[in-house]
Structure formats: structure tokens, C-alpha cells
Design goal:
Layout (H helix, E strand, L loop, with lengths): L2 E7 L2 E6 L6 E7 L2 E5 L5 H8 L3 E7 L8 H8 L3 E3 L10 E7 L4 E7 L4 E4 L3 E2 L2 H4 L6 E2 L18 E4 L5 E2 L3 H10 L5 H13 L1
Amino acid sequence: MALRMIEEHALGLTWVIEEPMARASHALVDQGRVWLIDPVDDGGAIDRAAALGTPAGVLQLLDRHGRDCEAVAGRLGVDLHVVPRELPHTPFEVLELVDNRLWREVALWWPQHNALVIPEAVGTSRMFTGDHGHVGVHIGLRLTPPRKLAGYAPEHLLVGHGPPLHGQDTGTELRSAVDHSRRDLPRLLVKLPSALRS
């Protein structure tokens, strides 16, 4: 397993794995405490994340794959929170995105930094965008995208697949992805085979 990128930014740290799905993990820092979001256990990245402050917890925001959340929480000696409905004593607000028998997913809104963390419903990798725009809705949600996301205008968007987006246009990119989710589905289906090979 190789890293495609590791990036320190205003919120903490993001690392992305070199693979077609471009799994991304995050370490968010608040008042000296570090929250690890859907971590893939790359030892170097975990060490860098832990060095940002005191590990406070591991958050698994999607039910159907735990990545290395349990192992990382055990190694760091912190609690694992699986698809939490609320996170008291943290800076995060929990947003329910999908809740059915096949798919349970929550996102995090961090109002202090105007930041949104979305594990699966949207992504920035080619598997989600098909080379059209910077953000795309998951193919399994294209017909019924989580429209509540269009009500947010984040300056920071951290996703579970692909690099983070930062800047004033981030909210516009997110709204466009949700608004054009159905219309862009044929284009994504055409681009998907090449994205799988990259």
C-alpha cells in the first residue's frame, strides 16, 4: 500500500492511498486534541497524525466498511465511534446523510472552520467525478443525492475518496455536484472504466 499524497492543512492532516478508489483519511485538530476520521493504517501517516496533539478518538462515519478504525483506535488507546448520531464534547455537528438497511452514513460539520467531512456520499476522485468537475456524487446515490448537502457552503471539503478541497469555490462545487447528480450519470458511466484502470 502506497501513499498518493499526504497533506498538512489548516484543519490537520489528510492522506490518500494510491489506488483507483483513492481512499482518504483525515486527522482533525481542535484545541490540542486529534480526531482521526476513517483512517487507513499507513504507519507514517498515523504517526504524523498522532504528533499533531493528543489523540482523542477515531470516528467511523460509514457503516459498511470499517477500514482500519478499530485497529488504530486500539493502538492509540482511544474510543471508536461508529456512525455516531451525536458527538458531545467535540467541535463537530453530526449530519445524517443515508440511513437504510444497506447504507448508514453520517457527515461532520465543523462550523468554527466552515468545514464539511463526507465519507462516501460525495468524493473528489475520478471514480466519483469522471473527470467532470472537482466533486461528484457516489454512483449509488446519483438518482437520490443527499440534497441537504446543497444547503452548506463549506470552505473546506474533506471526503473519504480523493484529496480535500479548500477555498471559496468549494461550496459552489458541492452544490453543483448535488444539483447535476442525475444529469451527469451517463457521463460518469462512460468514464468509469478508465477511472478504474488509473
